Amino acid sequence: GDSVTQMEGPVTLSEEAFLTINCTYTATGYPSLFWYVQYPGEGLQLLLKATKADDKGSNKGFEATYRKETTSFHLEKGSVQVSDSAVYFCALDAGNTPLVFGKGTRLSVIA
Amino acid sequence: GAVVSQHPSWVICKSGTSVKIECRSLDFQATTMFWYRQFPKQSLMLMATSNEGSKATYEQGVEKDKFLINHASLTLSTLTVTSAHPEDSSFYICSARDLWGGGTGNTIYFGEGSWLTVV
User: Fold this and answer.
1) What distance in Å separates the CA atoms of residue A69 and residue B8, rounded to the nearest whole number?
2) Contact across the interface for B95 and A45, Cβ inside 8 Å
3) Radius of gyration of chain B measured on its C-alpha atoms
4) Is the pLDDT of residue A25 over 90?
5) What DSSP string runs through B62-117?
6) For residue A53, what are the CA distances in angstroms to A57, A71, B23?
7) Within an 8 Å CB–CB cutoff, is residue A7 touching chain B?
8) Considering only CA atoms, which of A103, A110, A111, A108 is closest in space to residue A86?
């Protein structure tokens, strides 16, 4: 079945550091890919998405490119802030079915 | 983006009572909604898929008589935890599929989550 694998955390970075959270997937067909962010005590917020190969999703300084050849959707940000501390989930949507999530990566940014 | 609202955000109930959590899509119609449970520092565990006008599809191991799901309209799904026990205490999150997405495409949006504490 479809699956998502993302790097295990926690990830601790200093403010203004470069962030990469790796995400790879396995899927039949052509899924859409998402990154969601969960701040402490809250639900999930859509951060960005890409619906087809080579699409780049971007939002709030975060970017991820849908790479079909490497089945990856790595999340990047050039300069993280303390307010980016959260749990990040990579997810795959194969159609009219529930999302397939990675296990989440906890990011802590220290000043 | 589209908005999904959950209510209540926090609820405390006595053991043996039932509690209802509502999930509403505020600016789109959702034929499909999903209910999740999240344990501390873990990923989301899918409990069931709720389809408007039909019975919910439960994941293996989820007691459908304990976690009643009703999706009576295109904008509302409810989760009722019946005869709640302390082990049911958890963070419950719903999500809804926006099929048309207002131009952004088929996307799933999440509610803010509901903290349930059973005492």
Assistant:
1) 44
2) no
3) 14
4) yes
5) --TTTEEEEEEETTEEEEEE-S--GGG-EEEEEEEEESSGGGT-SEEEE---EEEE
6) 11, 9, 33
7) no
8) A108
Query: Could A98 and B46 be called an inter-chain contact, meaning their C-beta atoms sit closer than 8 Å?
Result: yes
Highest mean pLDDT, choosing among A44-58, A94-108, B43-57: A44-58
- Does residue B3 sit in helix, strand or coil? coil
- What DSSP designation does B56 have? P
Helix ranges (H only) for chain A are: none
Spell out which residues of chain A touch residue B98, defining contact as CB-CB under 8 Å. none
Cis check for the bond before A40: say yes or no (omega within 30 of 0). Answer: no
Residue B41 has a CB neighbour count (10 Å cut-off) of 9
Residue B105 is predicted with a pLDDT of 59
Average pLDDT for B40-59: 90
Say yes or no for a CB contact (<8 Å) between B44 and A93.
Answer: no
Buried b (16+ CB within 10 A) or exposed e, A54-76: ebebeeeebbbbbbeeeebbbbe
